[in-house]
Design a protein that fits this description.
Blueprint: H1 3-18, E1 39-41, E2 46-47, H2 50-60, E3 66-69
Antiparallel strand pairs: 1-2, 1-3
């Protein structure tokens, strides 16, 4: 394995660790809080908060994960 291969493997592992599944079970889909605490979805869309992302997941029936906290 070359140094470039090792670097790519390490970067891929770090990137993978940042992605996480949102905790949608703790939210009521009828109402999300209006606090702005943005999360960036793996679909490239910034959601106002985790609950809003969970609502979008339920509506679209897709498997969006949190790429990172904050805007995309």
């Amino acid at each position: 394995m070359t140094n470039i291969d090792k670097l790519f493997t390490i970067n891929a592992a770090i990137f993978h660790e940042k992605i996480r599944i949102p905790n949608c079970w703790k939210y009521s889909y009828d109402f999300c809080p209006m606090n702005y605490d943005p999360v960036c979805g793996t679909n490239g869309i910034t959601y106002g908060n985790e609950c809003m992302m969970c609502s979008a997941i339920k509506e679209s029936k897709t498997k969006i994960k949190i790429m990172n906290l904050g805007e995309c």
